[in-house]
Design a protein that fits this description.
The chain is an all-beta fold. It starts with about 25 loop residues before the first strand and ends with a strand. It has strands at about 25, 30-35, 40-45, 45-50, 75, 80-85, 90-95, 95-100. About 20% of the residues are buried. Helix content is about 0%, strand content about 40%.
């Protein structure tokens, strides 16, 4: 998985945390929150947009096909949907899955 770029989200008054009403997604050493079609990460005294930089293909076999009703949490992400699987997000991309 690639590191995310530090990208503060301007004017974010909502406080993310347990029971804030947004889907929590484990992401490495922190938790992201799905908010308005993108991911937020609490960082120091502000919230960052948490987006991976670069392209990271999921290593190994992935026999499971993600889609509506697959049993994994769907996370809207820009122009596609990621699926939370084994503690990380998978996104279909050109015949394989990427780590997001």
């Amino acid at each position: 998985m690639t590191d995310s770029v530090h990208n503060p989200h301007p004017s974010h008054e909502h406080i993310h945390g347990e029971a804030c009403g947004h889907v929590a997604v484990p992401h490495g050493d922190h938790v992201d929150y799905v908010h308005d079609g993108h991911l937020h990460r609490v960082h120091d005294d502000h919230v960052d947009e948490c987006e991976p930089s670069g392209h990271a293909e999921h290593a190994g076999e992935h026999d499971h096909v993600h889609g509506e009703g697959c049993g994994h949490v769907a996370v809207p992400h820009g122009d596609h949907v990621d699926y939370v699987h084994d503690g990380h997000r998978h996104a279909a991309h050109n015949g394989h899955y990427d780590e997001h």
